[in-house]
């Protein structure tokens, strides 16, 4: 029970210390540490990242979502092509989707052109890729549950 | 016009809320971090909001019956049975404008001029002024920190006189977070069974208890339903403060009189809110539970952080408040809060706002995100350092 709570707290703030997690759940620091090690080993926890708004940081950066239609391979389904796409360091995420296309990629690059070239020269020619549709991100309002650039406002008036 | 002369004396002398006074200052201050609110930070669960919207779409915009929608009263009875083993029927139930109105109706239905109302303090601020406005005599009973701010049978026995009409039983308690367990309620019930004293059990925080046992209502003890009026509502557990909806359950003759007063003063509780509340009781146990879990994390974190600062607190087991001792600062509560507010822009509420026995304590609400609480606590740490303690 407390395990799910630890994961939820970490998901919203990965910098929460072991001591704080222990206090919140009524467990010892050792118990929490052991649980987190276990989660890392089992890939329940897959990393601790920071949510950066690169636009605000003034670093030129372009993000794109790319829809792919692919032919699944006999015996391997989509796993083989998904693994090959995941090998590209330019690609941030690879998701198998239900609906009108099969795989959804997100990636970032320095310019629209860089991404467009990557798609044309490296993705499209891959065996099994039937079609691609590239969508560029123009602005991030909310991501991973976080409103970018805005502090939540407490509207409660009655103290 | 000489308004001072025109305004009723009882109304003029009614004790104002000590919470308000303090927060008027804080509200004007820029970048002030408040730990003062007494309502959930969560929005009302979506299913409940949707039920309210749907009732409006269907044009259900009339008064309901004075005592409240029949369907809602039936759901309230089912809910109280399911969650707290209380057995009421719909004609023992009055739907009110918040728990606040239920408290008001109950005191007005029972208290005559000169009747005494025992008010265990520190507690929520409304019982005292409503009692005096009715002409009753408010008898504060100072709960003790060493008892974890719980009421004991000896304290109660000592406070009862031939004029005692009503005991307010405010647990789980705002501001202390104290809860009364079954074995602690039993001796209280034993004292009351030998008297004609009635009980107003304010159980608005009943769903918000932490630890192993759930809230126990004094009305569920043998022989107590006949002398108890249970007040509850949707504000806290269902995060519905703005909907203004609560209820009272109790002996038929008392609920009948309360309904009569309510009929003249209020007509009926808000219709939209009543439809939404039906959904709240039928379908939202999981929402309550996830909010409760989140409060519990914050509670544990905050108690630990305050104890680390030397602002010692016994573990609050209900509601969403912590009531730490500020003895270490060497300041009286009011002064502590003022200095903390002016030097660090952190607003907490002085314990005496909830009764004289709150001196030496402050109320801190954890109805805030962990990030907010962390910011506030680190400012409090600076404050204590600068005080040299
Ligand atoms: C102990 C207690 N009772 C009753 C109330 C009134 O709540 P409402 O009128 O919103 O139901 C409050 C609100 O803060 C409270 O803390």
From TrEMBL, chain B:
Enzyme class: transferase
Residue span(s) of domain Aminotransferase class I/classII large: 30-379
EC number: 2.6.1.-
Pfam families membership: Aminotran_1_2
Cofactor: pyridoxal 5'-phosphate
Keywords of this entry: Aminotransferase, Pyridoxal phosphate, Transferase
GO molecular function: transaminase activity
InterPro entries: Aminotransferase_I/II_large, AspAT/PAT-like, NHTrfase_class1_PyrdxlP-BS, PyrdxlP-dep_Trfase, PyrdxlP-dep_Trfase_major, PyrdxlP-dep_Trfase_small
Keyword Transferase: yes
Transmembrane segments: none
Taxonomy, superkingdom: Bacteria
Family: Belongs to the class-I pyridoxal-phosphate-dependent aminotransferase family.
Name recorded for this polypeptide: Aminotransferase
């Amino acid at each position: 029970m407390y395990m799910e709570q630890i994961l939820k707290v970490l998901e919203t703030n990965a910098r929460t210390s072991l001591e704080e997690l222990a206090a919140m759940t009524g467990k010892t620091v050792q118990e929490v540490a052991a649980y987190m090690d276990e989660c890392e080993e089992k890939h329940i926890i897959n990393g601790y990242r920071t949510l950066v708004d690169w636009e605000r940081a003034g670093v030129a950066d372009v993000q794109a979502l790319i829809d792919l239609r692919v032919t699944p391979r006999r015996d391997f389904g989509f796993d083989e092509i998904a693994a090959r796409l995941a090998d590209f360091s330019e690609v941030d995420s690879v998701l198998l989707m239900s609906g009108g296309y099969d795989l959804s990629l997100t990636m970032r690059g320095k310019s629209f052109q860089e991404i467009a070239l990557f798609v044309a020269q490296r993705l499209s020619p891959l065996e099994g890729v039937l079609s691609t549709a590239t969508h560029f991100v123009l602005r991030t309002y909310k991501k991973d549950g976080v409103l970018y650039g805005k502090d939540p406002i407490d509207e409660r008036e009655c103290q | 016009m000489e308004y001072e002369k025109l305004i009723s004396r009882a109304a003029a002398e009614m004790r104002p809320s000590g919470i308000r006074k303090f927060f008027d200052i804080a509200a004007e201050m820029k970048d002030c971090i408040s730990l003062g609110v007494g309502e959930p930070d969560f929005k009302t669960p979506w299913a409940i909001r949707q039920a309210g919207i749907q009732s409006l779409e269907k044009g259900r915009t009339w008064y309901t019956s004075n005592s409240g929608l029949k369907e809602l009263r039936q759901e309230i009875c089912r809910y109280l049975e399911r969650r707290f083993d209380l057995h009421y029927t719909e004609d023992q139930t009055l739907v009110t404008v918040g728990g606040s109105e239920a408290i008001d109706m109950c005191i007005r239905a029972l208290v005559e001029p000169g009747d005494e109302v025992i008010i265990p303090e520190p507690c929520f601020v409304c019982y005292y002024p409503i009692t005096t406005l009715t002409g009753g005599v408010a008898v504060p009973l100072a709960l003790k920190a060493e008892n974890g701010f719980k009421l004991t049978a000896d304290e109660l026995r000592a406070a009862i006189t031939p004029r005692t009409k009503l005991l307010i039983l405010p647990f789980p308690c705002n501001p202390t977070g104290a809860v009364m367990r079954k074995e602690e309620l039993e001796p209280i019930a034993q004292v009351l069974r030998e008297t004609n004293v009635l009980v107003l059990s304010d159980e608005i925080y009943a769903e918000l208890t932490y630890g192993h046992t759930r809230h126990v209502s004094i009305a569920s003890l043998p022989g107590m339903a006949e002398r108890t009026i249970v007040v509850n509502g949707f504000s806290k557990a269902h995060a519905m403060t703005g909907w203004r909806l609560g209820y009272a359950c109790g002996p038929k003759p008392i609920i009948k009189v309360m309904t009569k007063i309510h009929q003249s003063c209020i007509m009926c509780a808000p219709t939209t809110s009543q439809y939404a509340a039906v959904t709240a009781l039928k379908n939202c146990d999981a929402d309550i539970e996830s909010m409760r879990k989140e409060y519990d994390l914050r509670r544990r974190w905050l108690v630990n952080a305050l104890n680390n600062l030397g602002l010692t607190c016994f573990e609050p087991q209900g509601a969403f408040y912590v009531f730490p001792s500020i003895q270490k600062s060497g300041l009286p509560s009011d002064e502590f809060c003022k200095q903390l507010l002016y030097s660090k822009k952190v607003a907490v509420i002085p314990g005496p706002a909830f009764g004289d026995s709150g001196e030496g304590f402050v109320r801190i609400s954890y109805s805030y995100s962990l990030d907010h609480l962390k910011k506030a606590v680190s400012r409090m740490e600076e404050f204590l350092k600068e005080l040299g303690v």
